[in-house]
Specification:
4 helices, 7 strands
Length: about 210
């Protein structure tokens, strides 16, 4: 069995300016303040800022999720590859500056897709470059084609993807070159949902990392 994180550390080291700007833009573009919305934030530990203020609306419910207890963490995970939410139950999943630290990010990605309602959205932000920052490990960098592959892998619709190829003017953001994507869950029939639930249970049993 492949290990999960051997050291229980939160995913986020700090929240740089460009990441906050991107999420603020996505919230304004894609979400309706008057629509009841459950948002979960994967890697929510607040070191130096968080996305939570962007989701502070009367009709919205925000749940911060991370590997360790701390500021802005509502749910502490026992594993980065199991999300304690029902399938097709969440309206928005946001994750920023976390995926580069997840050893088997595709397993976390499948869980994010599993909990997403039909029509629900994922806002995913991850660096395309930047210095190594092991916390507790630094495994990956992401380009737009990587996000296109992620969409295909779990059958999501990719609404937009971009990378900050030019350095951001803020010194805390320039090294990272955020890759930003918005994914949407397609309509799912009852049979589709049943098939996905069965497939996920098989993965839990058979795929290293889930076990």
């Amino acid at each position: 069995m492949l290990p999960a994180f051997e050291v229980k550390k939160h995913w986020n080291i700090s929240m740089h300016t460009s990441s906050l700007e991107h999420v603020e833009r996505l919230v304004g573009k894609y979400l309706d303040p008057g629509q009841p919305t459950h948002v979960i934030d994967i890697g929510s530990f607040d070191v130096n800022g968080s996305y939570k203020p962007f989701f502070d609306k009367p009709q919205w419910r925000y749940t911060g999720v991370d590997l360790a207890a701390g500021p802005n963490v509502d749910v502490v995970l026992g594993s980065p590859y199991r999300l304690p939410f029902a399938s097709f139950s969440v309206d928005v999943v946001v994750s920023g500056q976390a995926f580069e630290h997840v050893e088997f990010f595709w397993l976390t990605w499948m869980e994010m897709a599993r909990v997403l309602k039909p029509g629900g959205l994922i806002f995913l932000l991850a660096p395309s470059r930047g210095p190594e920052h092991r916390y507790p490990q630094d495994c990956w960098r992401f380009y737009p084609d990587g996000y296109r592959a992620l969409a295909k892998y779990v059958g999501l619709e990719l609404l937009e993807v971009s990378t900050d190829w030019s350095p951001h003017p803020s010194p805390d953001s320039a090294p990272w070159g955020d890759t930003v994507g918005v994914f949407r869950q397609r309509p799912l029939s009852l049979l589709d949902r049943w098939r996905r639930r069965c497939a996920q249970q098989v993965r839990y049993i058979t795929i290293p990392g889930f076990r």
